[in-house]
Amino acid sequence: MDELVSLCKRRGFIYQTNEIYGGLQGLYDYGPLGVELKNNLKNSWWSSMVYERDDVEGLDSSILTHPHVLKYSGHEETFTDPLVDCKDCKSRWRADHIKDNLCPSCGSDNLTEPRPFNLMFKTNVGPVDDGSNYAYLRPETAQQIFTNFKNIIDSTSRVLPFGIAQMGKAFRNEITPRNFIFRVREFEQMELEFFVEPGTDEVWHEKWVEKRIEWWENQGISKESIQIIDVPKKDLSHYSKKTIDIMYKFPHGVEELEGVANRTDFDIGSHTRHQKDFQIESKVIENEHSVTKLAIQNKKTNEWVIPFVIEPSAGVDRGVLAILNEAYKIEKFDDGKERTLLALKPHLSPIKAAIIPLKRNNDEIVAKALDIKRMLQNLKLGRVLLDNSGNIGKSYRRHDEIGTPMCITVDFQTLDDDTITVRDRDTMKQVRISCGEAPNYFQKNLL
Ligand code: ATP
Asked: How far apart, in whole angstroms, are the C-alpha atoms of residue 370 and residue 64?
């Protein structure tokens, strides 16, 4: 993990937040390359969830959330982790993360009994700070999907089954944020809430688990690094009938990358008004505040149904960490030399191609390189960089290390015969092609 963290900082993927003031624990910033990688991952998810399907709509809701939403969702009551204090060194820990009941910091067994600690961040809303007007920073993106359920069926005339997808920030006041961007206090989620007829939920749950594993493999996560866990009944969240966790072999251990839960009729059943008009299977809190009926009509039977929900919920930051970890390689050559390589899938690479002029001070060569950059950039397939550092060897090494799939060199021969050299990141093979062929070549190699 240390090597990866150092590469991320050195090359501009990920920095610690507010480092110039000593940092803030559990918070990170994505630098010039990190923001591209993260956006590419999110775009890939959005494309597979929304564009490539015809049964999913998108949403981008607010982060600040009405307390009633998180009261009826059960978060106010149950979104807690067990907290213990070490009476000797005064450190605080998550009880289920410590071994043999010993303080991980000083080794003492002088610990308090675990007590529930709510993970939600609360903030004051409006100009009066008397504690009565507050909202929560959403602890997951899901709840605002449920509260928009009626808006979306009214504006799209959807019938079951259909889904609503949302990506965005979530906030949890984790007791012990750690392992780089694996467990942080501000992170991004990619969540789909897929609404289905009760009775069809188990089949849909299986389908979504399969789909999600396939998608992670398409992002470069190898089958061998993934483990599937059927969460034991005693560990299930209060709303879940069954949850499959997609676990990844992170550098610090095997942990959750994504959870796929069968949330039953709990969510829509919790937030609807007139709950008694429906046969809600799950145990919901009696709702005294909702002003909206959230059921959907079965067009054949005319019956109003509270749908079941299948939820694939993935963390963007954990995804970035897993993808970086899979792609990171040190290759050793027969002559004893080595190179660092980030073998990212091209659709995820922060920079799609680097255009390198052989001589940084030769105006003709630099102008030609700029033309090629503009030509490829205009294809709008991601960032194409003019890399005018004047040292080809160094440029190749840098682009191998940040995962750029191809480097294009413009030299004196280019000025004579309009050809360029394209070097492939993974094989290091070079081919000479004409400038006219470049757009096609570029496009084909990015797929
Ligand atoms: P964990 O058991 O690891 O705390 P969780 O079961 O609480 O995770 P969920 O509530 O299912 O997580 O959230 C869905 C996804 O959001 C997780 O699979 C993970 O990828 C991501 N996630 C949750 N908490 C964090 C966090 N603190 N930092 C980064 N990503 C997170």
From this structure: 45
* Ligand 1 centroid to residue 61 C-alpha, Å: 19
* Cα–Cα distances in angstroms (integers) from residue 445 to residues 356, 405, 424, 440, 442, in the given order: 18, 8, 9, 8, 5
Pairing of strands 308-315, 338-342: unpaired
Per-residue model confidence (pLDDT) at position 284? 93
Mutate to test the pocket of ligand 1, among 226, 256, 267 (most ligand atoms within 8 A of CB): 256
Spans in the chain with pLDDT lower than 70: none
pLDDT for 25-45, tens place per residue? Answer: 999 999 999 999 999 999 999
Structure-block tokens of residue 133 = 């007007």
Can you give the pLDDT at residue 178?
87
- The pLDDT score that the predictor gives to residue 275 is 94
Collapsing DSSP to helix, strand or coil, 192 comes out as: strand
- The Cα 249–Cα 433 span in angstroms is 41
Ligand 1 atom with the shortest distance to the CA of 184: 28
Q: How far apart are CA 435 and CA 437, in angstroms?
A: 5
8 A C-beta contact, residue 345 and residue 220 = yes
Model-level pTM?
A: 0.94
* 224 Cα distance to chain centroid: 20
